[in-house]
Amino acid sequence: MSGDWQHALEIHPAGWSFPVGKSWIAGWLVSRTGRAPADVRAWVDHRPFLGLCALPRPDVQQAVAGNAHAPAAGFSFLLAPHRGARHLRIEVCDLGGEWEEVAHIQISVAGEAPPPPSEPAPDYSALLRQLLQAHRRRPGARLAALAFEVVAAHRSQPLDTEPNPPFWGKLEEPTAHGRLKYGRLTVTGWLAHREHAITALTAVLDPQSPVPLLHGQPRRDVSGVFAELRGSEHSQFLGNVDLPAGMPLPAALRIFATLDNGQCELVFTRRFRPSIVAGAEPALPNFSGTLFARCALALHRAARRQSLPTTGFISSARAAFSAYRDDAPRAPSTTHRPQPTVDSPPSTGPLRVLLATHNLNLEGAPLFFLEYARFLAAQPGFSVHLISPAAGPLQERFAAAGVNVEIVDLQAALTAGTAADFHSTIGSLAPVFAAARYDLVVANTMVAFWGVHLARKLGLPSLLYIHESAPVRRFFAPLLAPSLIPEVETAFGLASRVAFIAAASQAVHARLERHGNFRFMPSWIDVAAIERYTAANPRGALRSRLGIPAAALVFANIGSVCERKGQHIYIRAIELLQRELAGSGVAPPPRHYLMVGGREGLYLDSLRHDIALRNLANVTIVPEVDDPFAYYGAADVFVCSSFEEAFPRVLLEAAVFGLPIASTDVNGVPEMLGPCDAWLCPPGDPARLAAAMRGAMEAACSGDRSRILRAKTGVVTRFDARTNLPQHLALTREAGPQRP
Q: For position 344, what pLDDT does the model report?
């Protein structure tokens, strides 16, 4: 018994005297405060071994915790101690990533056992990056302790499991490097049983949130080889599992099978390290050479303490420093300093402006550009022309605002394999626009970086608006050939001005500034338009039009339904909130959950699957709409579940509509809303989002409008289009040609 954890070691060698070879250690762990074990680790002297944990032990859970449905208590190890080993320590890690020792035992090992194996030097560059990220996540922890854990996590020997007969199957994803896309792990494979039908498969990363997998899909290659297995022709399984923030690595995915006789067994365990293919990596701390030196020293000492060779440490540290210098955020040095002087003042007369955007979809950045273009086109004498490589529903709105729209073919440029091919394609495009004698090119989002290069070919100044808070190299890795990524970075320096609508975005890209060309320019919201809309559209009338019951409590998640927006986390949070409210004895009004902005595709299909598996009949996915204001007006609570958001206009709109807001606290969100204005939580955490949603719901039900009023007042004061759009016009003139 140690600290918060009660435990028993039920299976072990007699007298703790280990024979040659492998031995099982098994038992149970129960937290007095209800914590769930996320992982277990055994140290044989200085060698770490990972085990299996969160195994069902309803007998112990009922007897010790008083609840058979308490966090699963079983654990086990398969150990092969080396000759001469004297100590066995067992540790448990909770979901917050904190390791705690629960047992320390004196052992003996047969003299014929092999000595401890030698270990090669690890990739210290990768470990240094992990240590920097760990420091960012837990800045109050000692660097020595964090470094020790980084090294131990690298060295720990995993214990994976495969199905034992009469089960047969294969876990195909994840591999040892699990693909992670905005916090989601793809899980695929097949499983069948010789005698029984499999009625359910459940995946577990977070022991408190098991995830049902879709099982029973056709698998002809399996049935052709294993025809004797029951259900082999429909043995495919698939699903997505969220990786909780702070989960110790390598993470352990466990899959349990339930048979038609009610028996439940562990069939797969797979240890993996996340390979992030989309979404934010764990954040790095702000760039500091001193901090890096301290981390390097702490890691070197931790490696020596665990008897790892330090061959190549210096060269690895140099590589890690270079990557840290390139990728770490920096406090913006240009936000408040005096702006550089110019030889002559900007023009105060009309301008001929060529706008370049990446698409014309109903998304935040193109909508931002629509309002910007409309404002420019309304200025006396201005002419505005827009080019885009893709058509979209906003095309008619731009035309109605007095903006000429042209779709240009940029396929060859954006798929070019070399920088020379890219520049050749952009160069061939330039003569098409030279005759119009534009004064300025304005490019919207860094995906439209090509607009800056086009301006260069035309000999024109340019203004580049940045909406993204992801570093260039990570953002474009899946989108462009490696040789084109430096061309994106070059665009930041070539642009006459680079405008950031969020200071957080400016910090991410600070190293790319050249000649003081970065500017922080807060975005805007058309407050007057929203006020006119709410006056003309009473809430009851909107609900009647949308088919929403008048008495329902409505949560609305509005915006493009895509993995970056985290609607899969929203669904998990809904499930948790529903469960919590059902067990609370409180009888809130009937709840209705909306997702507005659905686009057909694999992600939308996966959301429908998640909703069906969780029996969430009160969740509705609404396709993209021309009038999203109707859903704001009909809602009681607004929810933003995004993983990345430079400066989400949906939050500005929700605040002006007077909705209580539950949102992830990412990128530019803290610049518009603080904890006194909204219920904020980290991204990718369904439990914390559910808690934020409950807080916002309780405010809506009780009539507490304190945060709502603060949020609306702050947004109207700082982001009203009537104030901010003229500032963007001034920046446009500053970026444009200088007149004598």
A: 45
Instruction: Tell whether 333 is covered by a domain.
Output: no
User: 395: part of which helix (H) or strand (E)?
Assistant: helix 395-400
For residues 24 and 162, state if they share a domain. Answer: no
> What is the C-alpha separation between 494 and 622, in angstroms, rounded?
41
Q: Could you give the strand order of the β-sheet that contains 661-664, starting from the edge strand earlier in sequence?
A: 619-623, 591-598, 553-558, 637-640, 661-664, 679-681
Among the three residues 117, 139, 170, which one is the final residue of a domain in this structure?
A: 117
Q: Exposure of 195 by Cβ count < 10 A (0-12 exposed, 13-18 middle, 19+ buried)? A: exposed
Supply 169's token pair: 């199957």
Q: Which DSSP string do the residues of 291-342 spell out, in sequence order?
A: HHHHHHHHHHHHHHHTT---TTHHHHHHHHHHHHHHHS----SSSSSPPPP-
Q: Kindly report the CATH number assigned to the domain that includes residue 446.
A: 3.40.50.2000
* Separation between Cα atoms, residue 500 and residue 686, nearest integer Å: 30
Q: Is 521 helix (H, G, I), strand (E, B) or coil?
A: coil
Nearest to 266 by CA among 158, 157, 169: 169
Contacts 24+ apart (CB under 8 A), 265-269: 265/167, 266/52, 266/55, 266/161, 267/161, 267/163, 267/167, 267/169, 267/191, 268/161, 268/162, 268/163, 268/169, 268/171, 268/189, 268/191, 269/52, 269/159, 269/160, 269/161
**Domain that includes residue 249, residue range:** 119-328
What is the per-residue pLDDT across 212-268, written as a single tens digit (0 to 9) for each?
Answer: 888 888 888 887 778 788 888 889 998 888 887 777 888 889 999 999 998 889 999
Residue 4 lies in a domain: yes
Nearest to 446 by CA among 407, 395, 484: 484
User: Which pLDDT belongs to residue 511?
Assistant: 85
Please spell the DSSP secondary structure of 227-266, one letter per residue. Answer: TTSBTGGG-EEEEEEE--TT--SSEEEEEEEEETTS-EEE
SS3 content of the chain, % helix, strand, coil (to 5): 35, 25, 35
CB 255 within 8 A of CB 214: no
Backbone phi, psi, residue 212, to 5° = -70, 140
Q: What is the pLDDT of residue 331?
A: 61
Q: Are strands 37-44 and 47-50 parallel, antiparallel or unpaired?
A: antiparallel
CATH code of the domain covering residue 321: 2.60.40.650
Whether residue 82 is found in the same domain as residue 152: no
Q: Enumerate residues 6+ apart whose C-beta is below 8 A from 482.
A: none
Dist CA 176 CA 274 (whole Å)? 8
594 residue type, one letter = L
Cα separations (Å) of 24 from 18, 20, 79, 80, 324? 10, 12, 6, 9, 42
Asked if residue 336 belongs to a domain, the reply is no
| pLDDT given at position 339 | 42
C-alpha span between 90 and 29 (Å, rounded): 11
Alpha carbon separation from 383 to 49, 386, 404, 444 (Å, rounded)? 68, 10, 9, 18
* Tokens encoding 672: 């518009």
- For the chain, the domain total comes to 4
Residues 603 and 697 reside in one and the same domain? yes
345 occurs within a structural domain: no
Low-confidence residues in the chain, pLDDT < 50: 1, 333-344
Residues 256 and 150 in one domain: yes
Alpha-carbon gap, residue 559 to 643, rounded angstroms: 13
Residues 441-451 have pLDDT tens digits of 999 999 999 99
The CA distance from 617 to 520, in Å, is: 44
